[in-house]
Amino acid sequence: MSAIQTYVRTTAPRGRETERLGPFLATYSPGTAHPMLNYAIPDDGAKPTMAEIGALTEAYRRRDLLPRLEYFTDVAPGLENRLVDAGYELERRVPLMTCAPAARVDKPAPAGIRLRVPESGEDFRRMRSAQNTAFGEPAEIVDDEVPQPSAGGRYLLAEDIASGAVVGGGLALEIVDGTTEIAGIAVLEPYRGRGIAAALTAHLTREVHEAGAHTAFLTPGDLGIGNVYARVGYRTAGECVHLSSVTS
């Protein structure tokens, strides 16, 4: 678990401003206040004082950001109680699932669906729009949200062969010391239940395994998608918690 938390601590700051505050690495994404893009990560075994938690909270408030943390509970088992005592509240608790090469189960794309790498800025824009819609966010994509092929990671979109519509997508982040994260797996509601999410996940997982990753991990947003990931070889290995402070 420590290796996966180290991976997040290494990759999350990419493209963000960072600040070291006691046993916390605070990350801030320029140009957006989205809580999922602005959060702190604790050190392994973190046992902060109330003053250190207060300094972290104030650092986010000075930037008009919601003070938040995301981390795997196994690496700092007593931290959640300390944060709650300091006024933080649990947003959600999600499983951490991992897949080793020997456990992977390949799943082909269902009939009528093509999986392919985005080939242009417009492909990326359509993929991101589909992902945002699937996640219940605005479909409109600004230029800063359009990833480029050189931005790192492996992108994959799902396309309806008959209409050419992009109906979903996902990505695998960079591999660091044999570990990588599968993220953003999303399929538009009318196309769900056909095995597209499983095919996207299996394809990306196979790619990273073949590229040298010994551990692929993800954090499913709900039980339903967790069951999809289980069908392609992912198993629960721990949990991730999101906590935030909404009090002034």
CATH superfamily of the largest domain: Gcn5-related N-acetyltransferase (GNAT)
CATH class of the largest domain: Alpha Beta
Q: Report low-confidence residues grouped into runs of 5 or more.
A: none
Shape: globular
Number of strands: 11
Specify the CATH architecture of the largest domain: 3-Layer(aba) Sandwich
Q: What gap, in angstroms, lies between the N and C termini?
A: 33 Å
Largest sheet: 8 strands, mixed
Biggest sheet strand order reads: 4-11-5-10-9-8-7-6
Output the helix-strand order.
Answer: HEEEHEHEEHEEEHEHE
**Within the CATH hierarchy, at the fold level, what is the topology of the largest domain?**
Aminopeptidase
The overall average pLDDT, rounded, is 93
The structural class is alpha+beta
| SS element count, helices | 6
Helix content: 25-40%
Describe this structure in words.
Strand 8 and strand 9 (179-187) form a beta hairpin. The strands form two sheets. The protein has an eight-stranded mixed beta sheet, sandwiched between helices. A three-stranded antiparallel beta sheet has the order 1-2-3, covered by helices on one side. The chain has helices at 2-11, 50-62, 79-85, 121-134, 196-210, 223-231; strands at 17-21, 24-28, 40-42, 68-72, 89-99, 113-116, 154-160, 166-172, 179-187, 215-218, 235-244. The chain has two domains: 2-95 and 240-244, 3-Layer(aba) Sandwich (Aminopeptidase); 105-232, 3-Layer(aba) Sandwich (Aminopeptidase), CATH 3.40.630. By secondary structure, it is an alpha+beta fold. Helices cover 27% and strands 28% of the residues. The mean pLDDT is 93. It is globular.
